[in-house]
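Entry: O-glucosyltransferase rumi homolog isoform X2
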Amino acid sequence: MVKRAKKTANFRLVVVNGRAYVETYHKAFQTRDVFTLWGILQLLRKYPGKLPDLDLMFDCVDWPVIKSSDYGGPNANTPPPLFRYCKDNETLDVLFPDWSFWGWPEINIKPWVLLLNELMEGNKRKGWDEREPYAYWKGNPNVAETRQDLLKCNVSDKQDWGARVYAQDWGQESQQGYKQSNLANQCEHRFKIYVEGSAWSVSEKYILACDSVTLLVKPRYYDFFTRSLEPMHHYWSIKADDKCRSIKYAVDWGNSHQEEAQAMGKAASEFIKKELKMDYVYDYMFHLLNEYAKLLRFKPTIPRKAVEFCPETMACPAVGLIKEFMIESVVKGPSLTSPCTLPPPHDPASLYALLRKKDNSINQVEELEKKFWEKQK
């Protein structure tokens, strides 16, 4: 069953007796595979001897590919388990934390522990009253139509939608030493926009950490933690098909309801600081891989073409930011505490109630927004 996921996988990971073996099929974009594997090795260092033997396939591309519609009906095959960073409601890929938690050297994004501390410090530089009363976004618009559509919301001589959006030229940034892309220096607006790229975007956690109101353009994809976010508590939902007017309404509301807006921004940053701390990221990985291993109906063995990976063999030959980020994100030694306790899954009724509450919150705001714009006619 595992081998059926090989078609799009970048690598196969086998853990036997606490040691990691990797068979590479396709080199991933940039260093996604490198830092994903580095993160798994840190998990093995953090909880030595506690991870069971396992065998999995990992796809480092953004888009999920295991479609649930392909595995329906009484005679359908079991879907192959394929690990990746995001999925949507129509796919069955297995969610795993993305590579940037251990660093993204190609665009100078530091490991999460360091960056989260910098973001929290950045929040202190400007209070709500001092921040620009606009919605800010900066990124690469060329990867998705929805981002190109967002550019239309920028201020012009004819219209001000309350948005300040900027196209990021990563080539130019690299030449200038990333002076204009320091994430800790981008918490200077009361509102920050999250919009998906080619699929989900790693930028979501950085935006949510900013103490600003996150204006979240209604997404299709989600990663391992975002389903815990509550609309109108952690973020304000923005219509994907009417972005400019939706942003304008949200910005006007936030600037005229500043106490509520500040509370929303603070709730998001507190969620990121407390619930997405690196210890919990590792605990999610630990429980995910343990539960996955329980489903295997065979004893994992080392593939003939697999190579053993360990922190030393990865870090020693590395150079530049790759080596620097590995050193900065290395787990110093075994954890003195056990992983957190895995909570029980939602029963169908409580899950339905949770989803209905989220939908109701979004629908209420959209109805208020609709009435507002009808009055402007």
